[in-house]
Amino acid sequence: MRLTRLDIQNLRCLADVEFRPVPGLNLVTGGNGAGKTSLMEAVHLLGYGRSFRGRVRDGLIRSGQPALSVYAEWQDGQGRARRAGLRHTGGDWEARLDGAPAPSLTELCAELAVVSFEPGSHELIAGGSEHRRRFLDWALFHVEPEFLPVWRRYARALKQRNALLKRGPSPGALDPWDQELASAGEQLSSLRADYLARLEPVLAGTAGEFLPELGRAGLQFLPGWRRAEHPLADALLLARERDLVQGYTSVGPHRADWRVDYLGLPGREALSRGQEKLTALACVLAQARSFAADRGEWPLVCLDDLASELDQAHLRQALGSVLASGAQVLLTATEAPAILTGELLPAATFHVERGQLRTG
Ligand SMILES: Nc1ncnc2c1ncn2[C@@H]1O[C@H](COP(=O)(O)OP(=O)(O)O)[C@@H](O)[C@H]1O
Ligand SMILES: [Mg+2]
């Protein structure tokens, strides 16, 4: 996809901004607190229904304003002109897609494929498993039509089972929910396992570019129960007594995780902070590349403050490989990085200052 226009109102310090990105590399410079990350958050919001810094109600709306709004125009993979708008009060939202009301935020997010790498992205490697499940499910959401209905079935069954567990159910009351949870959960896990298996060689490539010294990168899927030993139905039954005591479901795909292992490195703990960041970046770019292979077009790539995260050599490598693919990139920096010459020359430069954006 190719973003051509982004209008933002009342998102953090951005009171009223019109952004007109071009194909290729778009560089946005500005001092600390100028509004660079806020601009990235606006794009991320349309692609995910939330910011990478949290939910809308957690400070995304400009102080003193009732709502934020973001409007975007872009060209999809078939070259069609598309548009979407979102107004969000933190509680309620209103979204439009190509001139008609969008029935849910999910419909909107399905149309805008965005991947982001920002200073908090090392959480993908170092943080809790919810980051990694979100990463996994983003890809499936975009490339696997079966995913969303199965995910919804699973989420509903889990909610019902947990509600029952808290109530102390009569014997047998859990059975139908266990059955539904097991059936949806097995499908969900197969989709996740298949995706990670497809992603693994792509990741081995991107990680090999950034961290060749660590040896080949592999992906290990942790499905949320001992999937190799028994089906989910059995795991749920085995966990039932414990679940009744604890009041929630302790096994299943809602506990799933994955991790990157390097052949040349025995334990994940041994990664330095810098290596964690590079591994996270390798995962994000592998995901974008794998998306492109499945869908025939690159997602929009947002790289917030990348120069403060990477040394010059890795920065050149990362930008070089993304731009060579023809992807559209939004890159922010406090100052234009010195390496942005030749093939890495920005196609357009913008400057943001106290929430105002100007071109050039
Ligand atoms: N809800 C809000 N309302 C108004 N201003 C905000 C809000 N949240 C954050 N800000 C301000 O927005 C500015 C933009 O920050 P940010 O986009 O992170 O800047 P940069 O990435 O350029 O350093 C900061 O000065 C911050 O204080
Ligand atoms: Mg920032």
Q: Overview of this structure, please?
A:
The chain is of the alpha/beta class and 360 residues long. It has a domain at 1-113 and 300-360: P-loop containing nucleotide triphosphate hydrolases (Rossmann fold), CATH 3.40.50. It is 42% helix and 22% strand. The chain is built from ten helices and 14 strands. It has helices at 36-48, 105-111, 123-126, 129-143, 147-167, 175-210, 232-246, 273-295, 306-309, 312-324, and strands at 2-11, 14-19, 25-29, 68-75, 81-88, 93-97, 100-101, 114-117, 217-222, 257-262, 300-303, 329-333, 348-353, 356-359. The strands form three sheets. Strands 2-1-4-5-6-7 form a six-stranded antiparallel beta sheet, with helices on one face. It has a six-stranded mixed beta sheet with strand order 8-11-12-3-13-14, sandwiched between helices. A two-stranded antiparallel sheet has the order 9-10. Helix 4 crosses helix 6, helix 6 (175-210) crosses helix 7 and helix 6 (175-210) crosses helix 8 (273-295). The longest helix is centred in the middle third of the chain and has 36 residues, at 175-210. The radius of gyration is 22 Å and the shape is globular. It starts with a strand and ends with a strand. The mean pLDDT is 95. Adenosine-5'-diphosphate is lined by residues 12-13, 30, 32-38, 59, 61-63. Magnesium ion (MG) binds next to helix 1. The RecF protein is involved in DNA metabolism; it is required for DNA replication and normal SOS inducibility. RecF binds preferentially to single-stranded, linear DNA. It also seems to bind ATP. It is found in: Cytoplasm. One of its GO terms (biological process) is DNA replication.
